[in-house]
Write a structure and sequence with these properties.
Keywords: Membrane, Transmembrane, Transmembrane helix. This is Aa3-type cytochrome c oxidase subunit IV. It holds the Pfam family COX4_pro_2. InterPro entries: Cyt-C_aa3_sf, Cyt_c_oxidase_su4_bac-aa3. The protein is mainly alpha-helical. The protein has one domain. It is 94% helix and 0% strand. The radius of gyration is 15 Å and the shape is rod-shaped. The termini are far apart.
Length: 34
């Protein structure tokens, strides 16, 4: 169970930072197009 919990925490952190990164890249692209 402990291994599962640490893996879950890592996956959630990657999803969170991936979402932030994608939003940042999208904002740059929109700024470049505008």
């Amino acid at each position: 169970m402990k291994a599962h919990a640490s893996t879950y925490d890592r996956v959630m952190a990657m999803l969170k930072w991936g979402t932030v990164g994608c939003a940042f890249i999208a904002a740059i692209v929109i700024w470049l197009i505008a």
